Amino acid sequence: MTTASRSRKLAPVPARRSPSYARIYAVVRRIPPGRVATYGQVARVAGLPGQARQVGYALYDLRPDERVPWHRVLNARGEVSPRAEPGWEGIQRRHLEAEGVAFDARGRVALERYGWRPRSR
User: Fold this and answer.
1) Which of 66, 80, 50 lies closest to 17, judged by CA?
2) Domain holding 62: CATH number?
3) DSSP letters of 74-99?
4) Among 37, 44, 83, 115, which residue carries the largest CB count within 10 Å?
5) Are the beta carbons of 35 and 50 closer than 8 angstroms?
6) Is the pLDDT reported for residue 120 higher than 60?
7) pLDDT higher than 50, residue 9
8) Rg of the chain in Å (alpha carbons)
9) What is the DSSP letter of 9?
10) Domain assignment of residue 13, yes or no
11) What is the pLDDT of the chain when averaged over all its residues?
């Protein structure tokens, strides 16, 4: 995501983030274009089972210059999660559609079809 595409006012990022954020970002970087993962799945793969909300916090904390494909992470229903700032849901959806991910009439992605299946490391 570029600075131009991210219009919200960003809070300063602490000099030292939680080590779990680095693990979360490493997992999200592994999700290939055209695939999605859920917050819970990212948490499990990062070794943080039950910490789906922490994944959301970590993705919210991203700076514009960080290359993490945040848009590939959806909620457990295969939906774009609502945001506090208006319009971000549409931005995420457009990024995914540009990668070939389709949404149904309810605004959901078929996780069986587009879900990422990571290989064991």
Assistant:
1) 66
2) 1.10.10.10
3) E-TTSBPPP-SSTTHHHHHHHHHHHT
4) 37
5) no
6) yes
7) no
8) 14
9) P
10) no
11) 88
